Amino acid sequence: MKIAYIGLGSNMHSPIKQIKSAIKLIEEIASTEITDVSSLYKSKPVGPQDQDDYINAVVKIETELMPYELLECMQEIEKQHGRIRGERWGPRVIDLDILMFGNKIMTDQKLTIPHPEIHNRSFVLVPLAEIDSDCEIPGKGPISDLLATIDKSNVVQLQ
Ligand code: ROI
């Protein structure tokens, strides 16, 4: 059993609904349990600014799956939500990223773990810190150190 974290993001077609529906589908993945869900956060787009604000969240899971099996499940859920891979850094119906997988560090053409941008993205670090304030990101350091050096003002907790 491994602990993994999934980052969710959406800025199209009712983003809040997209995120909630994707979390329901993650719940249904075989050999996988959700053990924590962050609040939803609204954030300005990182990348091109001529797109709507994003809704982001992070889910913590326990899984018996291997990283590639989990990746396939994420891509399947993206497909079910009608995600079409368009422009890089462009708007998206749903994006499901494996942020961390146990203490694994790996990189190949299909998958990089931890997510290569995790340490730069407040829209990931802020919800992650909400559910695990003392988590250590393999190869990058304690989340508290990473959060101390980035601008968090862009990320607003909903409700
Ligand atoms: N910006 C924000 N705020 N949230 C995201 O989830 C997000 N996802 C992306 C890019 C286009 C990099 N920008 C984002 O893929």
**How many separate domains?**
1
Biggest β-sheet strands, sense, barrel: 6 strands, antiparallel
Give a count of the beta strands, DSSP E runs of length 2 or more. Answer: 10
Radius of gyration: 15 Å
Strand content: 25-35%
Highest CATH level, the class: Alpha Beta
CATH architecture: 2-Layer Sandwich
Gross geometry: globular
Descriptive notes:
The structure is a single chain. The chain is an alpha+beta fold. It has a single domain (2-157), classed as 7,8-Dihydro-6-hydroxymethylpterin-pyrophosphokinase HPPK (Alpha-Beta Plaits). Helix content is 27%, strand content 29%. The protein contains 4 helices and 10 strands; from the N terminus they run E-H-E-E-E-H-E-E-E-H-E-E-H-E. The protein has helices at residues 15-27, 67-80, 122-131, 143-148; strands at 2-10, 32-37, 41-43, 54-63, 95-101, 106-107, 112-113, 136-137, 141-142, 155-157. Strands 1, 2, 3, 4, 5 and 10 form a 6-stranded antiparallel β-sheet that branches. A two-stranded antiparallel ribbon has the order 6-7. The structure holds 7,8-dihydro-7,7-dimethyl-6-hydroxypterin. 7,8-dihydro-7,7-dimethyl-6-hydroxypterin is lined by residues 9, 43-47, 54, 56, 89, 95, 123.
